Amino acid sequence: MRNKIVAGNWKMNTTVKEGVKLAKEVEALVAKVNNAAKVIVCTPFTHLTEVAKVINKVALGAENCASETSGAYTGEVSASMVVSTGAKYVILGHSERRAYYNETDEILNKKVKLALANNLLPIFCIGETLDQREAEKHFEVVKTQLEKGVFDLSAADFSKLVIAYEPVWAIGTGRTANGQQIEEIHTFLRDVIAEKYGKTVAEECSILYGGSCNAANAKEIFSTPNVDGGLIGGASLKADSFLAIVEAV
Ligand code: PEP
């Protein structure tokens, strides 16, 4: 049985003090919920060590890591540094990093491999822009992102990934993909993974939806076939709205 997962992506929000407070609140609420879902908070690098101290049931993730191992890369944070904070996960391929920091499929492929080599589990994001959706290229786009980003991994390594489908036009816009759009892409993704790695690997892969998921729409989104939880941006910044999403999974 594949894992149900709800992961929060805090992005560039909260000070360390605010982040620790939020993490404590999330931990306290999640500890009370009788729910088999795995809950992850992905925080800015600066927060990881402090947040690690106040969570137990909730797992910790980073929002990025470097594409190089170590050395003269001023300002970068390596996968081994991230792991040394206590983080277990890292978001890679988020559309904001692809768009604003020119992270190509090739760079992301290097990051994924470095993360895995350091026992850091990637939450690998894929998704089409509005132009690509309107041109009906969304299936092709997400397939190419998988092929170029992660399909040269062994089946054993691929099995460690969490995939997050995030239509770029739904991120932070208040606009969610509808049930049919989500179902057809998630089913397509599982089929593409099955073609590459076989049915068992595909059936065990957690595929999350992300894009304006909130307390009000989470139940409906999570009841869509082939959706195994969510990657949550804005709604993960308040413990009670994040908890409502966790309860919906
Ligand atoms: C995200 O950034 O991964 C995301 C899904 O954001 P939001 O929930 O705010 O749309």
Which sequence of SSEs, written as H and E, runs from N to C?
EHEHEHEHHEHHHEHHEHEH
What about the largest sheet?
8 strands, parallel, barrel
Secondary-structure-based class equals alpha/beta
What small molecules accompany the polymer chains?
A: phosphoenolpyruvate
Number of strands: 8
Total helix count?
12
| Helix share, percent | 40-55%
Are there runs of 5+ residues with pLDDT below 50, and where? none
Strand content: 5-15%
> If you compute it from the alpha carbons, what radius of gyration comes out, rounded to the nearest whole angstrom?
17 Å
Gross morphology: globular
Q: Strands across the major sheet, in which order?
A: 1-2-3-4-5-6-7-8
Gap between N and C termini, in Å?
15 Å
Task: Characterize this entry briefly.
By secondary structure, the protein is α/β, with parallel strands linked by helices.
Summarize this structure as a short list of keywords or feature phrases.
alpha/beta, 12 helices, 249 residues, 8-stranded parallel beta barrel
Task: Describe the protein.
By secondary structure, the protein is an alpha/beta fold. It contains 12 helices and 8 strands. The protein has helices at residues 16-32, 48-54, 79-84, 95-100, 105-117, 130-134, 138-149, 155-158, 179-197, 199-204, 218-222, 239-248; strands spanning 5-9, 38-43, 59-62, 89-92, 121-126, 162-165, 207-210, 229-232. The chain is globular. The structure holds phosphoenolpyruvate. Residues 9, 166, 171-172, 210-213, 231-235 line the site of phosphoenolpyruvate (PEP).
